[in-house]
Specification:
Number of helices: 5
Distance between the termini: 15 Å
Order of helices and strands: EHEHHEHEH
CATH topology: Rossmann fold
CATH superfamily: Response regulator
Strand content: 5-15%
CATH architecture: 3-Layer(aba) Sandwich
Oligomer: single chain
Strand order of the largest sheet: 2-1-3-4
Number of strands: 4
Structural class: alpha/beta
Helix content: 25-40%
Largest sheet: 4 strands, parallel
CATH class: Alpha Beta
Length: 151
């Protein structure tokens, strides 16, 4: 079973969405995956995803309400086959801490290395809608590559 960890800064917006969407896709495609998410900071440790992330996910049929934020740990280095950062800063932070097999989610789905923008600073749900769509598109590509061992 392959294991994927999605990482953003606080683990309350983007990476919980990625975790929830990836679990849904894995279930649809019957992929043997273990999926989790974490943050490069511990600012929100133990907190649920932000209200707008929960709302947009629920609107799309994905329940992320029971997830809780956690910081990335040294144990994660040895546990996960793929560590997928939401933006370049997260990727750099992970690599500076010795993480390997770190990928940028924006390198998948035709986004040409774009960062997944942090919707926490957007006003309203529209930014979360755009981020959800970007994450979902990138994940279909990423998970296909993971499934076919072409990553």
């Amino acid at each position: 079973m392959k294991q994927i960890l999605f990482v953003c800064l606080g683990n309350i917006c983007r990476s919980p969405l990625a975790e929830g969407i990836a679990k849904r896709i894995a279930q649809e495609k019957v992929l043997p995956l273990r999926v989790e998410s974490a943050g490069t900071s511990s600012w929100h440790e133990g907190e649920p995803p932000c209200k707008n992330s929960i709302e947009i996910a629920a609107k799309k049929g994905v329940d992320i309400s029971t997830q809780r934020s956690r910081p990335v740990s040294q144990h994660d280095k040895h546990t996960f086959d793929y560590i997928v950062a939401m933006d370049t800063q997260n990727k750099n932070d992970l690599e500076s801490k010795g993480f390997q097999n770190v990928y940028l989610l924006g390198d998948f789905g035709g986004f040409e290395g774009s960062d997944v923008p942090d919707p926490y600073y957007f006003r309203g749900i529209e930014g979360f809608e755009k981020v959800y769509t970007m994450i979902e598109t990138a994940l279909y590509d990423l998970l296909e590559k993971v499934e076919n061992d072409t990553i």
